[in-house]
From TrEMBL:
Keywords: 2Fe-2S, Iron, Iron-sulfur, Metal-binding, Oxidoreductase. This is (2Fe-2S)-binding protein. GO terms for molecular function: 2 iron, 2 sulfur cluster binding; metal ion binding; oxidoreductase activity, acting on the aldehyde or oxo group of donors. Residues 3-79 form the 2Fe-2S ferredoxin-type domain. The keyword Magnesium does not apply. The keyword Secreted does not apply.
Amino acid sequence: EKVPLKLAVNGKRYKLQVEPRTTLLDLLREQLHLTGTKKGCDYGQCGACTVHVDGKRINSCLTLAVMQDGKEVTTIEGLAPGGDKLHPMQEAFIKHDGFQCGYCTPGQIMSAVACIREGHADSEGEIREYMSGNICRCGAYTNIVAAIQEVKN
Ligand code: FES
């Protein structure tokens, strides 16, 4: 049986009906068709599904949608200010080649923005520790750190 859920996603308000067992990740991808948020492992190990809830990063595969009732979600689709403009972190990832295949990139960027916002970007070591939950199979870590450092400075 479905239950009601109110959610703001990327500034848009939704009134939804969801199965209680639906994860936030599946809700975003399948019900709202916001497929920028990726499903890597689906059990909290890879970070591909990282989004912001009320400004804090979260693995969207690890939380039920109903637990986020009334909250504000930001996904990679909602990060840029709009129009043709990218978010500065997106620009920095392009400039520093912070990806190869790109599958982990939305999650990396959501974490990278949170890394600075939450004050964990003062040194390379701090950045690497904060970003350690975001796995990149292509091994673009050095370039991702460089992108974060550029936005921070
Ligand atoms: Fe959520 Fe891997 S899909 S952490």
